[in-house]
């Protein structure tokens, strides 16, 4: 039976020369998504890809004027493309704000189907110099924030139940993890510890919630060209060293991850439960072993 969601009206069914073009699929039509940390980088690409796949998207951002302006620009770009989005300021480490964000999304769009716990930070330092604040900040945003974001969504999904005309799952939770959920990272012990934590948070929630038809997964990006790792790709020297780590020979683009998440959220990925989808150009294949060892 055809999925009714994929029969939603689509854009530009015909080209200038009158020939009919295949309609773009809108596998997330009539679904509602929240993406945390969506005012920049990978979060923006995820929000944009989910909206292009048909979802109405809440673009969460940090509650400060700069992030608000960035989020407004993201929302405007999504709307210009004919898709649906709105901004929402909230701090992922604040439980009341995470719950309020879900309530607001449901009031605005009527439901919630997809939660992407994406917000993340880095505060690198050699271990002897890593302050307790640098440790706590990273664990707070990357791990505790992921927990609060997922919990707010899980509460809603459990109450809401299945809507079979929209999706085979009663909700999808997707964490933006990292290859550093399993690759150790010197000078970034706080970050690697947070992502290792996200991995077992994700798997534990997946095991707990699968019987309720809630799918929980992660996307685990490698080196993606964003501000968070600008130092690793801006100079020629750094870029060359980074490319040594990537067998596929290119640094990732944010929409490599956006598209992966849009797929992971769709029914095409309905049998993926408790998985980290690694999108890293082969970074995790131990490339230094090519011809060595
Ligand atoms: C980090 C990036 C880094 C990449 C690969 C990501 O999780 O945020 O800074 O380039 O992992 O090491």
Largest sheet: 7 strands, parallel
Q: Give the CATH superfamily.
A: NAD(P)-binding Rossmann-like Domain
Report the helical percentage: 25-40%
CATH uppermost class: Alpha Beta
How are the strands ordered across the major sheet? 3-2-1-4-5-6-7
CATH topology: Rossmann fold
End-to-end distance: 52 Å
The name of the CATH architecture is 3-Layer(aba) Sandwich
Q: Which sequence of SSEs, written as H and E, runs from N to C? A: EHEHEHEHEHEHHE
Description:
This protein has helices spanning 41-52, 65-80, 95-109, 132-160, 189-209, 236-243, 254-265; strands at 32-35, 56-61, 84-89, 114-117, 172-176, 215-221, 276-279. By secondary structure, the chain is α/β, with parallel strands linked by helices. The protein has one domain: Rossmann fold, CATH 3.40.50.720. A seven-stranded parallel β-sheet has the order 3-2-1-4-5-6-7, sandwiched between helices. Helix 1 runs parallel beside helix 2. Residues 1-15 have low confidence and may be disordered.
Keywords:
293 residues, alpha/beta, Rossmann fold, 7 strands, disordered N terminus, binds beta-D-glucopyranose
Short description:
With 293 residues, the chain is an alpha/beta fold. It is built from 7 helices and 7 strands, in the order βαβαβαβαβαβααβ.
Give a topology summary.
Layout lengths: L31 E4 L5 H12 L3 E6 L3 H16 L3 E6 L5 H15 L4 E4 L14 H29 L11 E5 L12 H21 L5 E7 L14 H8 L10 H12 L10 E4 L14
Parallel strand pairs: 1-2, 1-4, 2-3, 4-5, 5-6, 6-7
Helix pairs in contact: 1-2, 1-7, 3-4, 4-5
The structure holds beta-D-glucopyranose.
